[in-house]
Specification:
By secondary structure, the chain is an alpha/beta fold. It has two domains: 171 residues, Rossmann fold (3-Layer(aba) Sandwich); 107 residues, Rossmann fold, CATH 3.40.50. Helices cover 41% and strands 17% of the residues. The protein is built from twelve helices and ten strands. The protein starts with 9 loop residues before the first strand and ends in a 7-residue tail after the last helix.
Length: 301
């Protein structure tokens, strides 16, 4: 019942840079799972929706910013699978027509509740969250969808990879995707998360809590470009050239930073000769329209 039609494909990136050092680099194209519920957002939502249905809930409440991929995906998934949806949106100055992400979420039936940035800080306060659940008679999914149920869905991603590999990379926001990937690895394989925002201590603690303190993973905080949704000309140039070279779109918030980090780490000798590396394309391409509207269409599509 809670399934999408596609299993995301794997493609090899035939860069001479990789081939001359006998390193195979692949991309798990989770952006191709579905046009509206793509990437890690679907994987993190799947078992939350199953649990909500099991408990008899008809409404989902969740949280996000104005350009949130999670908000967009939750609205689309709830429409697809017969739930009502409510999005608690950070920024009381916003409205349902503020940008393409919120417009699409509203069109998909999500009721948007705009709250102050100070009140939004309560999103991890269990008493406040429980009150929301009671008020709306709703199943609450956390910001970014990251909880224990999300790990079950992300873990399935690793099972779909049919080749043996040494490293798997993913971009990090809340840490849930990396945590789920870690749960699916064998003892020899290693996960590397590319942080897309500041907050090293918080991320380590969050991921450690979700993964039962497993040790076969590491974080890189060198490629956030100043923080969440921050960028510079080097990042934009890289994203546009990557699209020319591989015909794969990257977003400037998550996947662009991950792939920039991969190439830079490769040049620094991170991956030994003969190794296989898998990069997870976590989707998020819906956010490009909003980014381009704000920044004079910097990303070429």
């Amino acid at each position: 019942m809670f399934e999408l039609e596609k299993v995301s494909p794997m493609v090899q990136l035939p860069s001479p840079l990789f081939l001359e050092r006998s390193v195979e680099v692949y991309m798990k194209r989770d952006d191709l799972i579905d046009s509206d519920i793509s990437g890690n957002k679907w994987r993190k939502l799947k078992y939350n929706l199953i649990e909500a249905r099991k408990q008899g809930y008809e409404t989902i409440v969740t949280f996000g910013g104005a350009y949130s991929n999670h908000i967009a995906a939750t609205a689309a998934a709830c429409k697809r699978f017969g739930f009502q949806s409510i999005g608690i949106i950070r920024g009381e100055e916003l409205n349902s027509s503020s940008n393409p992400t919120l417009v699409k979420a509203s069109e998909d039936g999500m009721k948007l509740q705009f709250i102050s940035r100070i009140d939004y800080q309560n999103r991890n306060d269990q008493v406040w969250v429980n009150a929301l659940s009671e008020k709306y008679q709703a199943f609450v999914v956390p910001e970014g969808g990251s909880n224990a149920l999300a790990l079950q869905g992300v873990k399935e991603l690793v099972k779909e990879i049919e080749i043996d590999f040494d490293y798997i990379l993913c971009p990090i926001g809340t840490g849930g995707t990396l945590a789920g990937i870690i749960e699916g690895l064998n003892a020899r394989q290693k996960a590397l998360g590319i942080s897309c925002l500041k907050g090293e201590k918080y991320l380590k603690e969050s991921i450690s809590e979700l993964t039962k303190k497993r040790s076969n993973w590491e974080l890189s905080h060198d490629y956030h470009f100043g923080g969440y949704a921050k960028y510079n000309n080097d990042l934009i140039t890289f994203i546009n050239q990557f699209h020319v070279d591989y015909r794969i779109a990257l977003d400037p918030i998550y996947t662009g930073k991950m792939m920039f980090g991969l190439f830079d780490l490769f040049k620094k000798g991170k991956f030994r000769s003969g190794s296989r590396v898998v990069c997870v394309h976590t989707g998020g391409l819906q956010g490009i329209a909003g980014f381009n509207a704000q920044h004079n269409h910097l990303i070429k599509t």
